Amino acid sequence: MTFPFGKVLIANRGEIAVRVIRACREMGIASVAVFSEADRESLHVLLADEAVRLGPPPAAESYLAVDRIIAAARATGADAVHPGYGFLAENAGFAEACAAAGLVFIGPPPAAIRSMGDKMGARRVAIQLKVPVVPGTERPVGDDAEAARIATEVGYPIMLKAARGGGGKGMRLVRTPGELPGALRGARSEAGAAFGDAAVYIERYVEEPRHIEVQVLGDGHGHVVHLGERECSIQRRHQKLIEESPSPIVDPGLRRRMGEAACRIAAAVGYVNAGTVEFLVDRDRHFHFLEMNTRLQVEHPVTELVTGRDLVKQQLRIAAGEKLGFTQDEVVWNGWAIECRINAEDPYAGFIPSPGRIVSLRPASGPWVRDDSGVYSGYTIPRFYDTLMAKLIVWGSDREAAIARMARALAEYKVVGVQTTIPILQRIMRDEDFVAGRLSTHFLERRMGVDRPEAAGRRRTVALIAAALAAYDRAGRRAPAPAPPGLGAWRQVTWPGWRGR
Ligand code: MV4
Questions:
Q1: What is the C-alpha separation between 101 and 303, in angstroms, rounded?
Q2: Active-site pick, 230, 295, 370, 405
Q3: Pocket test for ligand 1, best of 200, 206, 247 (most atoms within 8 A of CB)
Q4: What predicted TM-score, i.e. pTM, was given to this entire model?
Q5: Distances (CA, A) of 305 to 26, 156, 320
Q6: Which of 35, 280, 320, 333 sits 20 to 30 Å CA-CA off 189?
Q7: Using a 6 Å CB cutoff, which residues line ligand 1?
Q8: Per-residue model confidence as pLDDT tens digits over 224-271
Q9: Rounded Cα distance, 303 and 331, in Å
């Protein structure tokens, strides 16, 4: 059978568009990039076989403009559309618009996107399947009195969550009954503004949770398999910074149970293509279903490196109607993979975006190092989109080897012109708790103190004073300053015969 797609349009930008273009090229499929006015010189535009301008920089007029994207696919004769992540990736209406235009949407069926987009509905699916969820309500709560009754039943501390929510919006932690009425008001108004639905439900609060997610693949022929888990606890305000696979706390038994739960949920909603089932894992290593992401995820490469399977190629084959070419028993895991997100942000100034021109760039490379980047030396990072520049992914035979390799790769990675997350990633690779695998979603604020702007300000002042003192010290000496230790600290050796010439 010849592959049914000759040409794929990628409805995205940056590193993920580049990732999909690469898979297409290896499969002999032509690629079409789309771009906004701000992305004329972006890497995905340079690497694709063709590129179509969508409109001005704001996403609403470019990467979210369904009609323009469909028109671009039609004009170029594309057979299928890959949405990447973000933008239109979990928009059921977009998936339907593709189908209506005779284009294959490289993702799940619209009904599966919808059923998992409703977070309370997803929770009900899990409950029906006897997949563990955090104890709480199955329906939105009514008035304050009812909420108070349920909260007492569930037991404090509790969490209020938006029924239509996800990603942390409309969420409130309530530690005591006295805080409940105010928290309800806040959660409802935030949920109403963000999702157009003020309904909230109650869950028991899981202290110090780990965020662990399971990769699933479903074909359209009744097969669903999982490719194991990713540990994603190192995050700040729901933005992940580091991901790894496997998770330091997941053993083969837990992997099998979480994997089976994930596959059951996927199968129940008729899931086809790549998806991710998120769990909270508590201190006793009990897992609880949280939600399902109906897209390829940023952190998919760590799964690729430990399973040896190309997820984007799998997505293309599944969308083309092929059967999964392997069974669950054939999925094997080898070694350890870690991903670090290199963002154009200042980690010591509250992670504020640092767009601008990359004056000089030297990415890491070498054995078992993968640089999934959307940028290049001389490129100007536009201010309109997210700050992800590149993902640095390494593989090692075990966790210790992977951490050492990541530290080595981060030391090689040099970016001049914009601030990046590299310094804090380097600190985390040396952190005692991280190295020991003691992780939770509170790791960054607890261990790094990065969520306190005043601490960042103080550190900056201390750094400036130290730099001034060091400069003063150097200036006062006859001998040149000793080379600092570490990479880039090369010594210039001059042949003695040159002296005095
Ligand atoms: C929780 C929780 C603790 N207990 N639910 C945050 C995003 C949203 N999808 C679910 N989230 C949480 N739900 C209960 N019952 C803690 C979080 C949470 C979190 C979850 C995953 C990754 C990072 C997080 C950071 C803070 C809070």
A1: 33
A2: 295
A3: 206
A4: 0.91
A5: 17, 41, 24
A6: 280
A7: 134, 159, 166-168, 203-206, 209, 211, 235, 238, 280, 290-291, 441
A8: 999 999 999 999 989 999 999 999 999 999 999 999 999 999 999 999
A9: 11
